[in-house]
Amino acid sequence: MGQKKGIFATRSPNRFNPIGMSVVVLESISHKTLHLTGVDLVEGTPVLDIKPYHTADCLQSFKVPAYLTQESYSVNFHPKCLEQLEEILNTNTLKFYTREDNLCEVIRSCLAQDPSTVHTKLKHPQRGLYAFALDSLEIAYVRDSQALTMEVVLVEVFSSEKPKMRSSQWLESTLLSLKKMGFEI
């Protein structure tokens, strides 16, 4: 921290040249579409150039933030959630996902790294009910920091008629829904 870095070694939003370089995995090419993984891009971001990875590029010496090397959480889905996901996918209400396995994998990868803020971890150090939005879904999960597990317990399509996610009214209605499912927190 505080050391000078080259302009292409950082992800500064104020870079004089708004072009960044990233190492990514090219999964496949279909027509004029590149399917990339291992990259954080907004949909529609232009890819200006592609170069093959060469061992002389020496990625062995790269460094990652400490949180990426921490033990990740095991992510499980309550059986009722898998039913909910299947029903939702059958209604074609999602914009970005059409297959259950893809959606489950995205949810797993998001939760495995524990997206909880430091404030949340201090407020609820052991176990708690949390939620996040993905596509047009509200996904509720239980984080157990001692067992290093996350369990997805409720998946619902966003509705403006429902209480705002993570509000006290939302918590009350979510706990009631979970109780009806036979799930106790």
From TrEMBL:
Domain TsaA-like: 1-62
Pfam families on file: TrmO_N
PROSITE patterns: TSAA_2
Keywords from the named record: S-adenosyl-L-methionine
Family: Belongs to the tRNA methyltransferase O family.
Record PANTHER family: TRNA (ADENINE(37)-N6)-METHYLTRANSFERASE
Protein name per Swiss-Prot or TrEMBL: TsaA-like domain-containing protein
